[in-house]
Amino acid sequence: MSEGEAKQNYRIEGFSCAHCAGKFEKNVQNIPGVKEAHVNFGASKLSIVGNASLSDIEKAGAFEKLKVIPEQKINEKTYRVEGFSCANCAAKFERNVKNLSGVQDAHVNFGASKLSVQGEVSIAELEQAGAFENLKVAEENAHVGLNEKEPTSFIKKYSRVLIASLFVLFGYLSWIGFGESHYLTVSMFLFSIIIGGLDLLKIGVKNLIKLDFDMKTLMTVAVIGGAIIGEWGEVAVVVILFAISEELERYSMEKARQSIRSLMRIAPKKAIIRRSGIEQVVSVEEILVGDIMLVKPGQKIAMDGMIVKGISSINQASITGESIPVEKGIDDEVFAGTLNQDGYLEVKITKLVGDTTIAKIIHLVEEAQGEKAPAQAFIDRFARYYTPVIMLIAVLIAIIPPLFLDGSWESWVYQALAVLVVGCPCALVISTPIALVSAIGNAARHGVLIKGGIYLEELSHIQTVAFDKTGTLTRGEPVVTDFNVHDDEKESDEWLRMIASIEKLSQHPLASAVIHLADEKGLKDKDIEVTDFASLTGKGVQAKINGEKYYIGNPQLFTQLQVMPDTIGEMIGRQQSEGKTVIVFGTAKRILVTMAIADEIRQISKAVVEKLHQLGMKQTVMLTGDHHKAASRIGELAGVSKVYAELLPEEKLALVKRLQKESGHVAMVGDGVNDAPALASAQVGIAMGGAGTDAALETADIALMGDDLSKLPFAIKLSRKTMRIIKGNITFSLTIKLIALLLVVPSWLTLWIAIVADIGATLIVALNSMRLMKVKE
Questions:
Q1: Pair (244, 377) in one structural domain
Q2: Is residue 366 in a domain?
């Protein structure tokens, strides 16, 4: 790359295989103006040197319908927004911001209450664009955010609604005393309408002039029409109840967003740092990589880092959802927002505050809440046409009966106004976003990171779950499963001490299993002196202890030494048939110990697979590159339906595609790196161990943060319940409106019934969606 040329980075969604990624890279390189292009298939990223438009890049990936998202946008700033009452208002605010001079592009994330803007714009201009809803805007990185301000008292917060309600009460008292048409009665109702609905009327009239039909336009027409025909009391109640409905929507979304607010408050804002031998309390923004952070017992850890001094129990529930504290010591990784329970720690900082695991979780969850599920996208499209249709129906109801059926103009205009009120799409529009925000936030608190509503919806349709073996169904590290002593000259622990003292000099991967077993038993080897250590390539190692030569190696080594009895050989054969690797310890004259080593299955794996079958999965399969014997053993222990062994990455990919044809939706569970092609091809890619693992957070659609497979059934259960609630909300909202509209036929529909139906549906839908915040494992 020549000096002065900028590199542009993009995130790519939709890769199904490495071959397709290579084809995409070649297509991008052929775009005029592109001097260099590189695709990182594992991380789903594209880097370009030169000039290329977003549309040109997406055309280069059209063969696979790739979605291209700029990773770094010029002059982009992110703001937090307070005051959204509904998704329609958020969309209108986005349009207004895009129309501001100096703004190239803008995007509102309604679920996270965030605004991203490309270009130059002031906060005053942004708040002016949101003046129709009295929105408040602040930069995301401001030290005092919108959500950290002093709480407002109930009376102050809802003063206008309360005062308007009092005037309604006075109006009805005047009605009882002086009659419906008395000037005092009408004045009380008029004051109530003005105080409680002035903002509504301002916006509605502007919308009406622009022919912009939304729920506020419907309500404004209903209010004006009701006033014209003299229904002052009912109009005042309609205005008050609509204001209450909007406040309910705001409250519901705020409660749903609290899951993210709670994540933001997890990590401390300051930490004790030692620099040049001096301890000082500094803001986390000022902490640098390499600084030493001091953490006392009972304190929360402020930054990601590695322990350089001390041992303690760390409660990681805020990151991984694990309820049991984890013992950690020197060289172990710790995360911001976790709790140091009982030991003093010194931690070397490894990440800046914006790169910590908790920061990435917050960012990804907020982005996920902005990603619309197919169900929400359908509702948004439906609502766009629904409101004008309701307006048309109301007009027809108002004019057809009086003109053609000899109906009363006053009666049918009243019915039409009631139709406008009951047709308000509040409940319909709010039915999906509250559910998605609640579910994604709840999942994050339980250590399951779901990266978008689309993946939550896809997960609910999964019929087949495919597992990688190593590190997913198994622990991913070798352990000694059998320790057989064949010479009673010493106790088994003494033999183990000798073997471990020799293996500590070995570089063989299986040596760690023996050393780990000795450490678990607390066996020390300080008094054992090992000499003349030598590696026997392809066979094992040899060394001397107290002048006697010992060998550690595979069975073939001792067969060559001609010290392999038939009985021991038969036992080794049985263990090998179970997929285990056997290591032999002995001398040139006799075998002393045999050890079987295997990648041990996780204790939870069988229970998880059983739970998945109980949830109605058609099948569970295991895909592995390991040999058939080892794979069959693990598959049998885990209880999966089928086992496919000795697979290359491209063969795993082909199998996932075959499973999709056979049984529909497939989820692939793997480590997020080695299984990237299969993870990308599956409808839902689920990565194990997202905590601290950038690759897992980047490549997967869902990450199990605590490397905890037991979270998978919970995630599927949550996704299914979410979709049931969303479908129930939509059905309920439409049914209520249909029933209310049918009341028009016998002229039974009143403004009272209309507004109660609308506010009742909104309240029930919101409360039903908020139940997702309480779903437990």
A1: yes
A2: no
